[in-house]
């Protein structure tokens, strides 16, 4: 498979720009687990030297997107199910706290805004619009995080968001997942509107733990080796 990443046109912050470009490429491309990346080809396609490229690859390796093996090369490194489940447990803890804190600050306008996120979807037909619903799902969770007004909580959540982006995309397509997620989102909005911190935290936690159970109990991902 020929690799093709977007070249970088801005001279400043080359390592940061290379990191963003490569991460988007990894998350949006049909790459195989353990596929080797050509460092020279990547540098040429990005239009940068190897120094900022290596900085970007090192950061991606720390986040688990690639694996660097001395004298062997750089390889695509999708996370195994066990790690995905652990990340979802952490996400459940963070976002349940975000929902709890959001109850202190949420306004009627915020509630209307959250509902608007899902107004185009119906539980009986949402399975036909999983791509659009997946985007709405991301927007909803980010809005709840913002409502927490906790900069550190938002920062920690952002650090794990991209690590499960592909998981969200593929699991939302599973039979019944989109419908269940929509109903769960609406119930979370209801408890936020009531400004009930315990119920909001509980519903958010169970919503995310439900995804963890789905992954643990048999979700299949394209990058998994067939047995």
What does this structure look like?
The protein is mainly α and 227 residues long. The protein folds into two domains: 63 residues, Winged helix-like DNA-binding domain superfamily/Winged helix DNA-binding domain (Arc Repressor Mutant, subunit A), CATH 1.10.10; 136 residues, Up-down Bundle (Four Helix Bundle (Hemerythrin (Met), subunit A)), CATH 1.20.120. The protein has ten helices and three strands; from the N terminus they run αβααββααααααα. The protein has a three-stranded antiparallel sheet. Strand 2 and strand 3 form a beta hairpin. The mean pLDDT is 87. GO terms for molecular function: DNA binding; DNA-binding transcription factor activity. This is Transcriptional regulator. InterPro entries: GntR_C (IPR011711), TF_FadR/GntR_C (IPR008920), Tscrpt_reg_HTH_GntR (IPR000524), WH-like_DNA-bd_sf (IPR036388), WH_DNA-bd_sf (IPR036390).
């Amino acid at each position: 498979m020929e690799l093709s990443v977007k070249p970088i046109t801005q001279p400043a912050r080359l390592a940061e720009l290379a990191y963003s470009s490569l991460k988007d490429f990894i998350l949006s491309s049909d790459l195989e687990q353990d596929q080797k990346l050509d460092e020279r080809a990547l540098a040429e396609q990005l239009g940068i030297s190897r120094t900022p490229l290596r900085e970007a690859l090192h950061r991606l390796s720390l986040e688990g997107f690639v694996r660097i093996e001395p004298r062997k090369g750089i390889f695509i490194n999708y996370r195994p199910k066990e790690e995905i489940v652990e990340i979802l447990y952490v996400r459940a803890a963070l976002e349940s706290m975000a929902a709890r804190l959001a109850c202190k600050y949420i306004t009627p306008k915020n509630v209307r805004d959250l509902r608007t996120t899902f107004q185009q979807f119906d539980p009986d037909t949402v399975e036909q619009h999983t791509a659009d619903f997946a985007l709405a799902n991301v927007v909803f969770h980010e809005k709840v995080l913002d409502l927490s007004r906790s900069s550190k909580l938002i920062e920690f959540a952002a650090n794990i968001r991209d690590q499960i982006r592909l998981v969200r995309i593929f699991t939302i397509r599973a039979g019944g997942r989109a419908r269940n997620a929509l109903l769960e989102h609406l119930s979370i909005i209801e408890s936020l509107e009531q400004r009930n911190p315990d119920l909001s935290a509980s519903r958010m936690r169970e919503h995310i733990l439900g995804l963890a159970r789905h992954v643990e109990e048999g979700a299949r991902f394209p990058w998994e080796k067939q047995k």
